[in-house]
Amino acid sequence: MFRALHSAATGMQAQQTNIDVTANNLANVNTTGFKKSRAEFQDLIYQTLRAPGGQTGTGASAPSGLQIGLGVRTSATQAMHSQGALHQSGNSLDIAIEGNGFLQVQRPNGDMGYTRSGNLKSDADGRLVTSDGFPVEPSITIPPDATSITISTTGMISVTQPGQANAVEVGQLQLANFANPGGLLSTGRNLYTPTAASGQAVIANPGDEGTGAISQGFLESSNVEVVNEMIDLIASQRAYEVNQKVITAADEMLRKTTDR
Fold first, then answer.
1. What domain range includes position 93?
2. Does one domain contain both 120 and 31?
3. Assuming Cys at both sites, which of 101, 107, 219, 229 could form a disulfide with 175, CB separation 3.0 to 4.6 Å?
């Protein structure tokens, strides 16, 4: 009964984590470039009262063992880097990555961050920056008198200026790719940083080295599917309630055992 109490408690903790992850996914359903997470679990160590194949009292070999599980634990939260849907924004500085890759962003501490959020802006100096004002790398400056901006699928940025018949190239967007995107560390503000698990960034022009193409005037939506998240939420809630009932049942059995 004490084992049942402990196992059910770990089950409730695991389902609480599952609901926390689902809640964060649903909260970011409208976050540009957001990648949903999935909680993963492992069973805990087993109490082995008799090992499979062990000797029985008659000298025969037991065809199965006698093991009692001791619960569950959360082993990981896996980020799912599947492609989100693209929707047209009509803004010439909005871009979406069709395929693999991340934009490079210089963080305030000088380190490089990586993002799938392509809602770019132009700051007071004409530099391409994120919504938080972090400059995109390599640095690209848009002339203040530019009348139109064109971004090709390969990331080349061209502008048209008054008095010029032909567009002028002002910079080249580059993307970073990782051997294991799931190993990136989420730091908030739609940014990731590399870890030993993700591997080092491989920098290339869009369309090269396995990176995706750039779509101007589009944004990548969150890859959260609300219906699936709601199903997961209901399943987690029911599992939490069942574990709660196990604790109630084990406690009642223990009470009856100790009653005189």
1. 86-220
2. no
3. 101
